[in-house]
Amino acid sequence: MRALYSQVPALLSAAALLAGLAGLAVAAETRPAPGAAEDAPRSAPAAEPDEDAGASCRTDVRGSTVTAYCQNPFPRTDRVRLHVECARWWDVDTDSAPVAVAPADYAQVAGRCWKEVRTAWITHEPAAPGS
């Protein structure tokens, strides 16, 4: 009886180890990814793009400077603005003044951060008629 009593701590340690390994097996269980239909939020279908859409723009980030290059192939003037969000919390995010891009014209807009750029994007606004 005494021999069995001295082996109890070893048996309890082995049982705890096996229980821990069983827990790892459950944690490592894989599940199939949800289908695309489950992920997509339900919304109304997108409206057809307007024939006189805005200028086509691309952004170029080099270090802490962002430059947007916009070209307007449409017959209506488009006003573009560059928005720059900086990576550091203390760095000031910037929004440029609206720049009018006339039909068949080209514009370049620049912005910057003190340090790294997190993201940059362009917004479009149709110019008022007669301007």
Q: What are the salient characteristics of this protein?
A:
single chain, 131 residues, alpha+beta, four-stranded antiparallel sheet, 7 strands, 22% helix
Q: What can you see in these coordinates?
A:
The protein starts with a helix and ends in a 5-residue tail after the last strand. Helix content is 22%, strand content 36%. With 131 residues, it is α+β, with helices and mostly antiparallel strands. It has three helices and seven strands, in the order H-H-H-E-E-E-E-E-E-E. The protein is elongated. The strands form two sheets. Strands 3, 4, 5 and 7 form a four-stranded antiparallel sheet that branches. A three-stranded antiparallel sheet has the order 1-2-6, with no helix packed on it.
